Amino acid sequence: MTDSLHIVGGGMAGSEAAWQAAEMGVDVVIHEMRPKVGTFAHQTGNLAEMVCSNSFRSDDDEQNAVGLLHWEMRAAGGLIMSSADAHRLPAGGALAVDRDPFAETVTNRLRNHPRISVTEEEVTDLPKDGQWIFATGPLTSPALGEAIRHQTGADSLAFFDAIAPIVYADTIDMRRAWLQSRYDKGETEEERTAYINCPMDRDQYEAFIDALLAADKTEFHEGETATYFDGCLPIEVMAERGRETLRHGPMKPVGLTNPHQPDVKPYAVVQLRRDNALGTLYNIVGFQTKMKYGAQTSVFRMIPGLEEAGFARLGGIHRNTFINSPTLLDSQMRLRSRPNIRFAGQITGVEGYVESAAMGLLAGRFAAAEMLGRDIAEVPHDSAMGALIHHITGGADAKTFQPMNVNFGLFRPVDGLKGGRRGRKDRYKAYTDRAKAAWNDWLSHS
């Protein structure tokens, strides 16, 4: 058991972790419960089965953070990206994949690798011995989920996202919004200005409620269930309980003074709270929702100050098992309370095929290096990989931690570049140039 790296879960993350570790010279055992134990979403026993979209999203490595992540994975000899490239479908600037041949290719390459074996069994506990990576994703089995909950604490494992939208800070119109915590609470100036506030008069509030109630909503997928609790009610459910409900909930206007109009008391206020250490991302407080994405964009841009908002992530509530990684994992994705265990993929709090595979790539390399007695440098924060892993293992606010896609809001700003929407082309190119150099340097020393 101690001579091999054991990987639980054969999705995007587990498959990539296995490939990277084996290519570094470590024997790997993949433990995949399918097809013996199925899920409501999977149709086959193939590894890396795509259960949702067949898109890996943008492939633009100069102007898009996902495309940059594609580039970094290709540079690292990633199995997921090479298999996706082999089964690419026409999709404009996106990378769309012929899903069945893609999964078959990943499965065959892993099963035929001389250092990899695959066993079809369900793992239901966290072993105390050996080196393990758990990459079981959003459909982690109930038994294993309970074992993880027992090890990490009841409040550190979520079975449903209750996601509020996240906005790029530099797209908020501060001529209409202002910085202030309710009642100016806090011992420091940073604490007293921890929120961005967007005021509404009565007409704006009534129009917002009308749009919210009329917006298209999504339903839970078959096999998903959720009992709403008052701490994470969708805003449209709150609005359905009464038109004034939001004014007495997340949009209450008390304890706030608008410096742009100090003599006018807002009828309602939407608050945004800083979502990362860099201060580049803000989440809309209490705005978890089941509105469809297109509806969210149009409804939320009715909020004064958010008319031109750019969204790093839109809201949602859906089945997605994940741990509170900022409190539980170290910088090499090891469980602090059980360092022989790493987590990778969506269960760590990333969203999307590519992000999941990327975290698998890093976990596989970290584990292999440790087993081989090699030192491995910290992943550079300026790379897409580094920005993402830093976010989930410490850059995010643990109290409000929710799964995240890779986006430029996770990157350190580049000095001397114009902010806002007009300067983003040059800014994004600077991010990607800096990231590629940092990533290549890391690979050459790893």
TrEMBL record:
Domain of life of the organism encoding this protein: Bacteria
Gene3D superfamilies (UniProt xref): FAD/NAD(P)-binding domain
Predominant location: cytoplasm
Cofactor: FAD
Pfam family, one: GIDA
EC numbers on record: 2.1.1.74
Catalytic activity annotation: uridine(54) in tRNA + (6R)-5,10-methylene-5,6,7,8-tetrahydrofolate + NADH + H(+) = 5-methyluridine(54) in tRNA + (6S)-5,6,7,8-tetrahydrofolate + NAD(+); uridine(54) in tRNA + (6R)-5,10-methylene-5,6,7,8-tetrahydrofolate + NADPH + H(+) = 5-methyluridine(54) in tRNA + (6S)-5,6,7,8-tetrahydrofolate + NADP(+)
Binding annotation for FAD: 9-14
Keywords recorded for this protein, A-Z: Cytoplasm, FAD, Flavoprotein, Methyltransferase, NAD, NADP, Transferase, tRNA processing
Keyword NADP among record annotations: yes
Protein's name according to its UniProt entry: Methylenetetrahydrofolate--tRNA-(uracil-5-)-methyltransferase TrmFO
Organism: Ruegeria aquimaris
Lineage: Bacteria, Pseudomonadati, Pseudomonadota, Alphaproteobacteria, Rhodobacterales
